[in-house]
Amino acid sequence: MDVPAVIIGSSTYGIAMTIRRRLLADASDYGDGNWLSATIDFSIKLFKGSVPGNIRAQELVRFYEQVQKLNQTLAGTAEFSTMENWFGITLSADKRHCPAPP
Predict the structure, then answer these.
(1) Is residue 35 part of a domain?
(2) Domain tally, the chain
């Protein structure tokens, strides 16, 4: 089974957010049931690291929607941040600096 992940960049220069499991799988409450256990792996040339933490499903959905808009317009930003502020990233695009499609 494939593990759900969000990957930005490459294996030598990038970030991968891997969703491990639902934190409270038996929760019947909407708020409690949407916590996910995740690991953030990052690599910047020779510097590599891994940080475990909890995120909310809504944070991923919001980021996905912003990335879709960023990809369509090639302008603006897409921001991901956790409710507890332990991780955040901002992607930006400027269509004036994008190469023309082939």
Answers:
(1) yes
(2) 1
pLDDT digits (tens, 9 = 90+) for 7-44: 888 767 899 999 999 988 888 888 888 999 999 999 98
pLDDT at position 13 = 85
Q: Is residue 78 part of a domain?
A: yes
Q: Rounded to whole angstroms, how far apart are CA atoms 39 and 5? A: 9
pTM of the model: 0.80
* 102 falls within a domain: no
Q: 75-96: string of b/e by CB count within 10 Å (b at 16+)?
A: eeebebeeeeeebeeeeebeee
